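Box 3.1 A note on notation
Throughout this textbook, protein chains are presented in two layers. The first layer is the amino acid sequence; the second is a C-alpha cell string describing backbone geometry. Keep the layers aligned when reading.
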Amino acid sequence: MTFCFMGHRSNRIARNRSWQGHFITMACLAFLASFTPRATAQATMGDTSTNTDSNATLAYKKMSLEQLMNLDVTSVSKEPEPYKNAPAAIDVITSDEIRRSGASSIPEALRLADNLDVAQVSSSGWDISARGFNSSVSDKLLVLMDGRSVYTPLFAGVIWGSQDYLLADIDRIEVVSGPGGTLWGANAVNGVINITSKSAKDTQGLYVEAGGGSQLEDFTAARYGGLLATNVYYRVYAKYFDVGSEVFDNGSSANDSWNRGQAGFRIDSEASPQNPLTLQGDFYVGQSDVTPGGEGNPQASGTTFGGNMLGRWTHIFSDENDLSLQVYYDRTHIEAPFPGAPDVPAFPPLFPESPAIPAGTLHDDLDTVDVDFQDRFQLGERNHIVWGLGYRFTHDVVGNIPTVTFLPATLDQNLFSGFVQDEIKLLDKVHLTLGSKVEHNDYTGFEYEPSARLQWDVTDKQMIWGAVSRSVRMPSRYDTDLYQPAPNYVYVYHLTGNPDFESENVVAYELGYRAQITSKFSGSLSAFYNDYHNLRSESEKITPTSLTSLIDINFQNNLEGDTYGFELSADYQLLTWWRLHAGYDLLKENIHVKPGAIDVDKGLNETADPENQVFLRSSMDLPGHTELDANARWIDTVRNNNGSTVGTVPGYFELDVRLGWHVTKNLEVSIVGQNLLHAQHAEAGFPGPTQEQIVRGVYGKISFAW
C-alpha cells in the first residue's frame, strides 16, 4: 500500500498546487486505491467457474481459438452465454493466461485486458479505468469479486491494494468496457471488471508456490482442497509477499515498500444438484512504508486489514429457469498518515496569520452488508427475462484529523435496487435486449439506468451488435462530506464537499463486431461515443471578510463533455505451438466547463488518460515442456493537471517476459522479467521530485501441485 500526503495552499493566488488542494487531497485519498460454465445457476450471481484443471497443466495451445470464442461469460447479461455471442465490448482473461503472463497481482493481470488503462503509481498503487477518467481516485469502474462489489463509498473507487486472491485460484477475469448500469448499478459508468475464482471442486489436492527476486522480494502461498462430505468440496489457502520500494526521478528510494498477508476458504456443495451452495471468505492484513512529503522527511507507515464472508444459494428448475440468493458481509480498516501544514504568514492586509495544522493519521472503518436476489426464466418462445432485487447497507466511520475531515464522521447509508431485462428474439438471428435498473440512494433519491442492445448473428462465427445505454456515478463522501482542513481551523483556503452534489451521468452509444474469421484468426472491434453530464468541478470564491478563510472552494457539477474512440483486438494462431495477440485502443476526450459556469481547473483535473495504447503478446510452447511468453505494451503520453499547470507523463514502451519449465507434471519452475526495457519509468502522477518511477524487476518462482 502507498500513502500520500496533503499539504496546505500557502500560495493559492499563484495556483501552484503541487502539494496542495483538490489534486493532493485526491492523491492522498488514493492510498485507498493503493493500499492496500459449471452449474448454469451458479453463474447468475458472478460464479462462472468452469471445469478447470486445478494443477493448471492445460497448456495455452490446447485451447483452440474456437474454444476461446465459446467460453461462457456472464458479465454482459448476468447469465452464461458464449463469448462470441456477448453483445458488448468484453475481454476475457483466462486462468492460464494469468499464469503464463507472470503477473503477481490482480492489477498486473489486468494489463492483459486490451480495453483497460492500467497505470502503476507506486509499489502498491494503481490507477485503473476504462474509456477515460483515469486518476488517483478513478470512480467510474465497477469491480466485482465472485459477485461481491468492492466499491467504497468514501470516494466511489476501488482500493486495489485490498483486492487479492491466490492467482492460481482465479478462473477468469471478464472486463466489459462501456456502461453496465442496467445490470450492475451505479458506478458501472465506463465498465465492469468481474473476477471469478474456481470452484472448490476444481482445486482439490495440494498446491504450493514460492519465490522472490529484485522487486517482488519474496512470496509464498499454499492451498489445500478436499472433501467434507459426498459432493461437498472445500479449499483453504494462505499467501504472503514483500514488495520493494520504487524510486524517484533521481534514482533515490521512494521508501514505499509493501507487505501483505491473506488467508481464506471456499466451500461448494453439490449434495443436491438442483440446489448448489457456495460459502467463502477471506482475511488480509498489510503494511506500507512512505516518506511523508518526499525524500528527506521522517519515515511513516500505515496499516490496512479486513475480511469478508459470502454465501450464495441457487435453485435450478431447468437450463432456462433458476433463481439465486447471495448475501455477503465485508469489513475494511485503513490507517493512513497525513503531514501537517506549517504556519502561513499573514495575507495583507485583510487576512490574519494562519497557524500550523498538526499532522495525523486518518482512520476509516467500513462495514458493508449486501443482499441480492435474482430470477431468470423463459416467457414463451421469444422472451428470456432476468430480474432481481438488491439491498446494501454501509456503516462508515472516519477517524478524522486536522488536515482532512469528513463530516459527519459516522454515516449509515442504504441502497435499494431492482432491475429487469428482457432478451427478445425478433428473428432467428436477431435479438433485442431491453432493460433498466432503478436504484434509490440517500444522496439523490431515485436513479434510472436503462439500456437497449441489438444483436445480429450474421453467421455462427460472426456477430454485429449495437447499444444505447445510460449509467450514473452517484455521489460519494468525498463529493459531499469533505473538509480540508477541518472547519474549526482558520486558514488561507477551505476545500469542502457539497451536500447538494448531483449524480454524474453518461449516455453511451456503441457499435461492435466480433468474429472467428478463420480457424487461426479471430478478432473484435468496438466503437463508442459517450456523452457526459454533471461531472465534478471546483468552484472558487474569494471572501476577504471571511473569519475562517480567504478562499472557499467547493465541489459542483459544472463539467460536461464527450469521449469517443474504438478498441481493437485480434488473436492469430501462427503455428500449432505459437500464438500471437494484438490490441489497440484509441481514446479522444473533450471535457469542458458548462456555459456560464466555473471550474478552477478548467476541466483538466478529472482525467489522466493516454490517447493511444498498443498491446502485443506472444505465447510459445517450446520443446522440453517449456513455455516462453512475452507481453509488450506502448502507452501514449498522459496529460494531467495540477491546478493551473498541465503536466505530462511521457509515453513509454515496456516488455514483460516469462520462461517456464514443467519439470514434471506436478512441478513448474519459471523466471519472470518485468519492465525490462527501462531501469525506471513513470506511468502516472504529476512531474516533480515526488513522482514515483516504476523500476525493472526480475523474480523466480517454483510451484508444485499434487
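The helical segments are 21-29, 31-34, 40-43, 65-69, 95-101, 106-109, 181-184, 477-480. The chain has one domain: 21-705.
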